[in-house]
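Model: You mentioned two targets. I'll fold them one after the other.
Researcher: Yes, keep them separate.
Model: Target one:
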Amino acid sequence: MSANSSLEKSELLPPLDPVAAKRWEHIAVQSPSAWLHDEVAKRMAQRLRFIRSPPAHWVHWQPSLGGWASQAVVSQQYPQSACTVIEPSAALLSHARQNLSQPWWQRWRQNSPRFALSPPQPAHMLWANMGLHMQARPQDCMAQWQACLAPEGFVMFSCLGPDTLRSLKTLYTQLGWPPAAHDFTDMHDWGDMLLASGFAQPIMDMEHITLTYPHVQALLADLRSLGRNLHPQRFAALRGKKWLSGLHTALQDTLITPQSSGRLALRFEIIYGHAFKAPEKALPSEMAHISVSDLRSQLPSQRKS
């Protein structure tokens, strides 16, 4: 597939409300890391064992969205590597500094992360955990990743896939309610978008994780920590107590299955992506000059009649 066709396909990704997505960036930073985000970070870090040489410098991309646990997980894997934490605004960067700065008595033992709005130097690895599915324009995000990386640097990212919350979305549809959550992009579309953004050799993988809850209140609290509904056609007003009571009943009736041992179950699709920065192509102005005599010397000799 060509870069142009990949880009055209990326424009057909599920739309998100850009205002709501920007608002979530500032809400997420004030909440504790979601358990699922921290668990995915540990699982993604296991894939770092297949990287031959540790990066001299890596970028932690927006930990406010992906959870604070990633910093310790990757730092344990690469204790000698320098790290720059990137957030899109000074306010978010301040929150990241508060959550990720090491105590003074530990700074001498390992590299302390730097905090910046952009990396001071090209990085050899960029780590982005569980944030891409909350981006209204993921193409722009990937372009920034590509700009952050040195030649032959690589990106590691994770996000939610289209099977996520399928049972909850089906329930809302059956009840005639607006969408319960925005749609999530398929891993093959993420791979196409990586290619269109200047990455090479994308490797995409996925797995399903089912979480169970003892009661509805615990389930709804966990969903609030995971993110927000960014669907453009979501319900735009406030719900009442009667609707909430009906939701509780519907969740109890639908999400408790024989396989969940009397607990409410929700299934999440986790997508993992890995790709290298593609080498820069020669500019059109960089032409090779070959003399006519050299060209003639390469032609097969012809017999004279």
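Model: Target two:
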Amino acid sequence: MVYEDLLLDRSEGIATVTLNAPDKMNALTEGMRRSIIGLSEELAADDSIRVVIVTGAGRGFCSGADLSGGAMTPTRQQRIEFLGPNYGAGAFFGIDKPVIAAVNGAAVGAGFSLALSMDIRIASETARFGAVFVLRGLSPDCGITYWLPRVVGSARAMEMMFTGEIIGAAKARELGIVSRVVPAEEIMSAARDLAERIAEQPQCSVELSKRMVYSGLRDGWVRQIELEAGANQACTRTEDHREAVRAFFEKRPPPRFRGR
């Protein structure tokens, strides 16, 4: 099957998924979201696949939600449907197979959420991470309010969310966001080597290990997605959000937010 804005390679029990919209730094378009849902379901049902690697085409991993249509105006229910457990940022969390994020460049906004939902993250030296929602006049979503505090602690997570701070790969390694940092030219070989090591282990043991680690977390994830959707529905009605999106596409600094 052909998936929009995604590439898939299967080799020796390992599936490599490439987010393939390099002209938009692999921003999550609606088509890519649907593709991720379908592909994750396909890989979950494929017993020949033991490990999944996810990376991005070109210079970035994923630059977040595609805002090329302008300010976001979906209803709360539409956001829940888009951002829920079967949305791109949750689809790989929902399968039992181990998923490795090979973060080759910027992973910001929803792209950061996507990476956090994966089991293991390896970063190239050029990778950058940021919960930049606030700079777009939005509140954090795609599950990042669930994952980030669990990875870096609530105080550090809120600092990143409140400021939109972008950090480099070395800092991400220090905070535990990624397990290792490698030269840019080695990112895929490092991910592949790790995937091969995992693929050699008993499949039942590995998949049950993942299921047990996440046991009890899924209900909390769903609830958090609902809260995020409601919060962002309020944000999308503000002039701050509309002006922030205009500033982003006009390549000027974030505006002076007026709280309206």
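Researcher: Noted. Anything on target two?
Model: The chain has one domain: 1-184+203-260.
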